[in-house]
Specification:
Elements: H1 3-16, H2 26-40, H3 46-64, H4 67-74, H5 80-95, E1 104-106, H6 111-133, H7 144-152, H8 164-177, H9 179-211, E2 215-217, H10 225-243, H11 250-255, E3 264-265, H12 267-301, H13 310-319, E4 324-330, H14 337-351, E5 355-359, H15 373-377, E6 382-388, H16 395-408, E7 414-419, H17 421-427, H18 431-446, E8 450-454, H19 463-475
Parallel strand pairs: 1-2, 4-5, 4-6, 6-7, 7-8
Antiparallel strand pairs: 2-3
Helix pairs in contact: 1-3, 1-8, 2-3, 5-9, 6-12, 9-12, 10-12, 13-14, 14-19
Length: about 475
């Protein structure tokens, strides 16, 4: 899918990860899925189905909430950045004195030499960051100048102040999903600006050379003729070879010293510096800008939306009407009718509308050896061993129960679900809650299964995400 479709999909995801509301209800979710399946066909590719559903959903959302179009526009890349920054850079380069003060050109200290040094330093940084980024993802982030440009382009700004949590989640999720595309765009603009600055400096250099006579020479407190010969020949040698302009020998450099005379007409030296700037700055920056433009075009037309995430996988199953059977197996715990309804809703949100949830008879504490795990598990695709957080995990009981379930089900189908409802009612959000969670988390890690902690009687907004994370971790085993 392209960038615009991906942006709409991320927006809809942010709304659907919040509790149902007047703007977007469970009925709206079902309508969007059904309509997308009818338009694209159940056999369509996953990204096509998700893109179509997002387009239909955004259209309905925008009709109810006028902030939705503005929210989408707030993270869109403004096209004017791509030409305004290079134009300003060209003007800055033309305004800068690229020759030096007065009409004498000190060959050892023209501003063009600083321009060459700066760009060479930038190339070294790009090479180091690129190499380090292969082994450490933290090195792939934007640099300080790039971050400033990103803020200018409103692509890393804060969520709209009155947009609510859905808006904040959308902005954060889009920033993460579009990081590669944003980096390519900013790289293209910065490299184009550097090339434009160099071009502006060279244009101003030749325009000034038409109107004024410049004399070239050198002066230095520390360097003598042989050192100047070695330095300038190393810098300007490639340009001299391309242009055919001969560089002087050591004796010739000695005659160019301003203390020995008034120098020479600067035209040949300005040609050499201009050619060097073209080879070291303009051409490489132009190639880098074109490379980033190609990458930008590729990412924009084929946006790498992570459709293998649980939310998108659940959508795909729903759109293609792929059923998922979940079996809840309680041990030493009972599910109330309300907790059962809430768990059904959470699993449907995570796995799709065709998810069926069944609850096995509860196994009493200490009776784990009396159950037949194959009969309990049945034909389920996903099994959740349900425990209560009020209990302290014991290897000979809770652990034995999980081990028996693992013998009847593959590792990628089993996870631990810990109900916090009763514990929260008794102790609230006290330090004891974290301590008990840590015990159950260690218990699950020892048995190499994922764990989710949810208050099923009154699940909070993060409950679906916690379940999704556990299901995703289970699928990877």
């Amino acid at each position: 899918m392209n960038e615009a479709a991906a942006r709409r999909a991320v927006l809809v995801r942010a709304f659907e990860q919040q509790p149902a509301s007047e703007a977007w209800s469970d009925a709206d979710r079902a309508w969007a899925s059904l309509a997308a399946a009818k338009v694209e066909g159940e056999g369509a590719a996953a990204d096509a189905l998700i893109a179509r559903r997002a387009s239909l959903a955004v259209e309905r959302l925008a009709s109810r909430d006028k902030r939705v179009p503005r929210l989408l526009a707030s993270v869109a890349w403004p096209a004017w950045i791509g030409w305004a920054i290079p134009v300003l850079a060209f003007a800055a380069g033309a305004a800068a004195d690229s020759i030096g003060a007065g009409r004498r050109v000190n060959l050892l200290a023209p501003p063009l030499l600083a321009l060459l040094a700066w760009n060479l330093a930038v190339y070294v940084v790009i090479l180091v960051r690129g190499s380090w980024g292969l082994v450490d993802s933290r090195a792939r982030g934007l640099g300080p100048v790039a971050r400033l440009l990103a803020r200018l382009a409103h692509v890393t700004g804060a969520a709209p102040k009155r947009g609510g949590k859905a808006a904040a989640d959308f902005v954060a999720d889009w920033m993460q999903a579009s990081a590669g595309l944003t980096a390519a765009r900013i790289g293209r603009v910065l490299h184009a600006a550097a090339a434009a600055f160099a071009l502006g400096a060279l244009a101003a250099l030749y325009l000034r050379g038409i109107a004024f006579e410049y004399r070239a020479g050198w002066e230095s407190t520390f360097l003598e003729g042989p050192s100047v010969h070695a330095l300038l020949n190393s810098i300007l040698g490639p340009a001299a070879a391309l242009t055919g302009i001969a560089l002087p020998d050591v004796a010739g450099y000695a005659k160019l010293r301003f203390s020995a005379g008034d120098g020479v007409i600067a035209a040949p030296w300005l040609h050499l510096y201009a050619m060097t700037v073209g080879m070291v700055v303009f051409l490489p920056r132009l190639l880098l800008a074109l490379g980033n433009r190609w990458l930008e075009s590729r990412l924009s037309s084929r946006f790498p939306l992570p459709i293998d995430e649980p939310y998108y996988r659940a959508l795909t199953r729903t759109l293609r009407e792929e059923p998922v059977a979940v079996r809840i197996v309680p041990y030493g715990a009972q599910l109330s009718p309300q907790a059962t309804l809430n768990l059904n809703a959470l699993l449907t949100q995570c796995l799709g509308a065709r998810t069926t949830v069944s609850v096995a008879p509860a196994t009493a504490f200490g009776a784990e050896d009396d159950v037949d795990p194959r009969q309990i598990v049945g034909e389920a695709n996903l099994i959740a061993a349900l425990f209560a957080l009020t209990a302290t995990p014991e290897a000979e009981n809770h652990g034995a129960f999980v081990d028996r379930l693992r013998a009847a089900a593959p590792a990628h189908q089993l996870f631990v679900l810990v109900d916090e409802s009763t514990f929260r009612q008794q102790f609230g959000a006290s330090p004891r809650l974290d301590e008990r969670r840590a015990l159950w988390r260690d218990f699950a890690e020892q048995r190499e299964v994922a764990a989710a902690f949810v208050a099923l009687e009154q699940p909070d907004p993060a409950a679906a995400r916690l379940l999704q994370a556990a299901i995703e971790a289970t699928a990877r085993r």
